[in-house]
Design brief:
Radius of gyration of chain A: 24 Å
Strand content of chain B: under 5%
Order of helices and strands of chain A: HEEHHHHHHHHHHH
Structural class of chain B: mainly alpha
Oligomer: heterodimer
Shape of chain A: globular
Strand content of chain A: under 5%
Strand order of the largest sheet of chain A: 1-2
Helix content of chain B: over 70%
Structural class of chain A: mainly alpha
Largest sheet of chain A: 2 strands, antiparallel
Radius of gyration of chain B: 23 Å
Helix content of chain A: over 70%
Largest interface: A-B, 90 and 95 residues
Order of helices and strands of chain B: HHHHHHHHHHHH
Number of helices of chain A: 12
Number of strands of chain B: 0
Distance between the termini of chain A: 36 Å
Chain lengths: 293, 277
């Protein structure tokens, strides 16, 4: 009886959790090992037979100026987006959690909807940022923020900033909802008690709300940093890359794999990207587990 | 005192309205461009006013068989991804919410961790695998890599949904003679239906909006999904903005409807880490 039920139990685990785990292992575990090992070989369209070269792919990548430009772009792009999205998400969440305001039921879907619109949204931003006929330029100009139209997406220095504006539009609902969940879970009594003790709204935010939402915020920021680092938004908006000005590490790796057929070079860049993500992923998981406890 | 309070409240509303305009701006501009006649596209300065609204761009898309294909392809891959994910993730979610065994949390965490793996590290080996199995350029086969994107958050969500259903209900059903699986399909899943439906919708949105895998795995022109197909109108030297924006509007409308349907589950879905491409 005992053996039968434990056999059943094992079978049940296999049937329920088995498919999910095996798909994940097959589609992520194996390719991950494959790519990392490919980075130690030399393989491309001209050398289809892989040859073991140990770390010489890494050495040649790390000694090329292109790599540092790409790396700089990646970090710049990630930093811009994390700051902009977190800031906008925080402001939106605070407003949407404010019970003294009316009509939030209408505002909430309107403010969160950009999340559901990806490629069409990016393409529309390309059109809106057009240097001659772009409405975004016209709006900024009529608000007095710029004196003449800016070519957001065709000037090297501005390209990633332009992409950041579009990406922030698309992704701030994620940050907003993560922060909103944190704010809404704060018991009202705590804030009321602070109010009675004479704490103003700024003090209440800094000393009560912010510490209490920080677990949510850290988890969201970690995950978002990883996503942004791997984002293809600059490629969707500026496929040509503007002579490398809008090229981040994942885009560089993608071009090596699928446009220049330098498979090992692509694998090397992808492995470096993976290692950069690993540190972030470890802290994400630590924050996540701390929140669970 | 009262005056400052009113002022603060007014500025909060003002902030909400400005944010709402920012959020709606691309959608409005997309729609306006799509109904503008071609001669009104290149106005300097651009204006929100449409003098002579036309439906030409929409007619152009509807009469183009390629676009009909793109929408069917997108719908097909999104529906299949949603169904397959639901089957796998709801079972996994059930297992994680009900069973107790060693290394359960480790397994769960390993599935969640998959959201953190950059696509770039796995895309090339999967591409080669697909090329050996002759699965490239196959819309249905695209569902397989899409599962990487949907299974982690769906497992998370279905665990959360199913954990909220009391165990006693199943136990009562089993006393009445149901098997474990019978209780699962007759009692648990029907109660969890709204939450599971939200998972289906999230998977649909995720698959519909996906760009990179569709770009890489589908090469022939007629097999694209709509996210790739719209770029047919975007050229290096000339872009047909009217048609491009009309196609974009058509690709966006289903997303807006679905989003409004699952609004209630949005926060929960985000907590599970849905990227939304």
């Amino acid at each position: 009886m005992v053996t039968k039920s434990s056999f059943n139990f094992f079978l049940f685990i296999l049937v329920t959790i088995g498919p999910a785990v095996s798909i994940v292992l097959a589609l992520i575990g194996y390719p991950l090992i494959y790519t990392i090992s490919l980075s130690f070989f030399n393989r491309s369209i001209i050398h289809p037979e892989p040859r073991f070269v140990f770390i010489s792919n890494y050495i040649s990548l790390l000694s090329s100026p292109t790599f540092y430009r790409v790396l700089y772009n990646t970090l710049y792009w990630t930093a811009l987006n994390v700051v902009a999205t977190t800031g906008l998400g925080l402001i939106t969440a605070i407003l949407l959690a404010d019970a003294s305001l009316k009509g939030l039921k209408i505002f909430r879907p309107i403010l969160l909807i950009p999340w559901a619109i990806s490629v069409p949204g990016y393409v529309t931003w390309v059109w809106m940022m057009n240097s001659d006929y772009g409405i975004f330029n016209e709006i900024l100009k009529s608000l007095g923020l710029i004196s003449h139209y800016i070519s957001w997406l065709s000037e090297g220095k501005l390209a990633l900033i332009g992409c950041t504006i579009a990406n922030t539009w698309h992704m701030y609902p994620y940050m907003c909802s993560m922060i909103l969940a944190g704010i809404l879970s704060i018991p009202n009594e705590i804030l009321e008690a602070a109010n009675i003790d004479g704490a103003g709204s700024l003090k209440r935010f800094l000393y009560i709300t912010l510490p209490l939402i920080s677990p949510n915020l850290l988890v969201a920021m970690c995950l978002y940093t990883i996503w942004t680092m791997n984002s293809f938004a600059p490629y969707i908006m500026i496929p040509g890359g503007l002579g490398g000005a809008a090229e981040t590490l994942p885009i560089y790796a993608y071009k090596m794999f699928f446009q220049r057929y330098e498979f090992s070079k692509g694998a090397t860049a992808a492995s470096i990207l993976f290692m950069m993500n690993l540190a972030l992923a470890v802290s994400y998981l630590r924050f996540l587990m701390r929140r669970w406890k | 005192m009262n005056l400052t309070k009113t002022f603060i409240k007014a500025s909060k509303y003002a902030a909400l309205v400005i944010l709402a305009i920012f959020a709606m701006l691309p959608m409005s501009w997309m729609l306006l461009t799509s109904i503008r006649p071609p001669e009104e596209h290149f106005l300097s300065p651009p204006t929100f006013l449409v003098k002579k609204p036309v439906l030409d761009h929409y007619l152009k898309i509807f009469s183009d068989i390629r676009f009909v294909n793109y929408f069917t392809n997108s719908a097909l891959v999104a529906v299949l991804t949603a169904i397959v994910t639901l089957l796998i993730a709801s079972l996994a979610g059930y297992g994680f919410s009900r069973l107790r065994f060693r290394s359960k949390e480790l397994l769960f965490l390993s599935i969640i961790t998959c959201q953190l793996i950059p696509l770039m590290v796995i895309i090339f080996p999967i591409y080669e695998m697909f090329s050996q199995l002759n699965l490239l350029d196959n819309v249905v086969a695209l569902v397989i890599p899409y599962l990487i994107l949907t299974i982690p958050f769906s497992t998370w969500m279905s665990r959360a949904v199913l954990s909220s259903i009391p165990r006693e209900l199943e136990e009562a059903a089993m006393l009445d003679g149901c098997t474990t699986l019978g209780a699962l399909f007759r009692i648990v899943f029907p109660i969890a239906a709204p939450g599971l439906a939200a998972i289906v919708v999230f998977c649909f949105i995720e698959a519909w909006n996906e760009y990179l895998l569709a770009l890489t795995f589908l090469s022939s022109v007629e097999k694209r999904t709509i996210q790739i197909g719209i770029f047919l109108f975007k050229g290096e030297y000339f872009t047909d903005w009217g048609a491009l924006m009309a196609a974009s509007t058509l690709a966006t409308i289903p997303m807006i409807i679905l989003f409004i349907l699952i609004q209630k589950y949005f926060i929960m879905g985000m907590a599970g880490g849905i990227k939304g491409s």
